[in-house]
């Protein structure tokens, strides 16, 4: 199904431009702007009241835009609930326009000029200074107020941010100089990429998404292109084995191994491909590595394949429908030749590690080969260093405002799906679709974890998933498996946790007649 026709669900993330469009469409459909603002302010007041008792001292720091208007509403409602509310404003009331001016008019308490000292003794601070669309560095009084809010938080005050912490860009997640570190952020209708991209994710605290009356139908017009990868999307995208199927119908992955001293990475990828559901996996192995790979592999088959010509001949068997190259393969011309051999065919190809670094001096050579592949699934899975070596020479990459934008540019330039790894893994397709995966725990940063991810992507591609779907699902499965293991994780553990992850995903389907018959239900 083309991306433009894909049903939009709760996992859509809206850029600040898209969110502004959603607001305008809601108002055009008959929802007054002041109603949206009242509902937003009420959601913020509710977030305060859920955790703090009446009588608590609340300081609302309001800015001169609609974010400040939300703050005025929250102040009024909290005062009505018997909180001791002080409203401080950065700027003047005269600068408020439209709905924000009306919200200020409805506030009957005093409005003080904002000062850092005005936060002294606050139990709760409502950060309504800047909205998600901030695109310039913070300076002057706003910078001083952000510093004061963070200092107050360090002394025990709880900070609740309206939409996003002030200083964080909602589209890119970037800190525009100074930025509030909040305990909770209350956003509206849909989250934004900046809630999940680093460093924004580290600043926003608990994330609450409030329904403020924007009709779901506006998404049909806005058509956001970014999603947050979650379990529902992954479960719905995964292939389900059929009782009438067999191992070849589940795909056959070839993982190309390095020499005798560097075989472990390829074996990690191969085992992960099996755990991801591929019917068969074969290690294509140079002669000196056959003994070690054969001695340490059981379900994974081992075949001697010596060099690019032999790999080309080996891959003539059309049952080999996915190939993974890079882990432990070595950097240089020999690896480049192996990559070209793998790309010259209709099979899915996943490139990682040395398969990417080997083209650092000649990226266009790789990009040209990728662009010739037409509809064949191709996925690149670099970490930041590998990405920089392959794409860092491009002006568009150097000028990109976010990791998400970098991945999108790289996908368009290279002609492949790009999965840029990290704490905020981003995935980009050639058609403009992008995704953020944010379930990876910190202890996933361990040797060999990326090799496992490569194998999961290849295993899903072998079962017929397109490159973008396979990459997004693999990133989530990888993170979920790591979380299931917990601290002490080593890369070998990730594949072993996959059955538990799959069991949880499909738990609600296990007793259905369709599931027992091999269908999804």
Plain-language structure description:
By secondary structure, this protein is of the alpha/beta class. The chain is 42% helix and 15% strand. It contains 22 helices and 18 strands. The chain has helices at residues 16-28, 33-51, 66-80, 98-106, 140-154, 193-196, 200-203, 218-222, 231-237, 264-275, 290-295, 308-314, 333-343, 354-357, 363-371, 384-391, 395-399, 403-414, 449-462, 467-485, 491-505, 513-516; strands at residues 12-13, 57-62, 84-89, 111-113, 124-128, 158-162, 184-188, 206-210, 226-228, 252-256, 280-285, 301-304, 320-325, 348-351, 378-380, 417-420, 425-428, 434-437. The longest helix has 19 residues, at 33-51. It is elongated and about 80 Å long.
* Overall body shape: elongated
Work out the radius of gyration: 26 Å
User: Distance between termini?
Assistant: 20 Å
Derived from helix and strand composition plus strand pairing, the structural class reads alpha/beta
Number of extended strands: 18
The share of residues in helices is 40-55%
Strand content: 15-25%
Q: Main beta sheet, described?
A: 11 strands, mixed
Which runs of at least 5 residues are low in confidence (pLDDT < 50)? 1-8, 508-521
| Tally of alpha and pi helices | 22
Strand order of the largest sheet: 1-9-18-17-16-15-14-13-10-11-12
Average pLDDT level: 94
